[in-house]
Amino acid sequence: MTPLLANESEDLNYDPNNLLDTLVKHLNLKTDVQLSQVLDVSPPVISKVRHRRLAIGATLLVSMHEVSGLSIKELRELMGDRREKFRGS
């Protein structure tokens, strides 16, 4: 069995679908298209996030916070990001 690298073990917990599903429910929406409209992004952005082809960036995270009222920390926890500090690249 090969040991996991630090970033690989973090990826195991990353689940953008949990965050997106929670937002849809929290905002009383029915579809990802409606979520994209509320967040002011195109529907393919939500699709790419769901399929892990696009990471949730700071701008999208702030938009999620503004429309949902959930804290940034809560949103990060919903997607499996449990780091104490967040550093951009």
Q: Which of globular, elongated, flat, extended, rod-shaped describes the shape?
A: globular
* Termini separation: 30 Å
Number of strands: 0
Biggest beta sheet summary: none
SSE order in H/E notation? HHHHHH
Number of domains: 1
CATH architecture: Orthogonal Bundle
The helix fraction, in percent, is 55-70%
Mean pLDDT equals 85
Percent strand: under 5%
Low-pLDDT ranges: 1-10
And the CATH topology?
A: 434 Repressor (Amino-terminal Domain)
Structural class: mainly alpha
Estimated radius of gyration: 14 Å
Number of helices: 6
Q: Can you tell me the CATH class?
A: Mainly Alpha
Q: Superfamily at the CATH H level?
A: lambda repressor-like DNA-binding domains
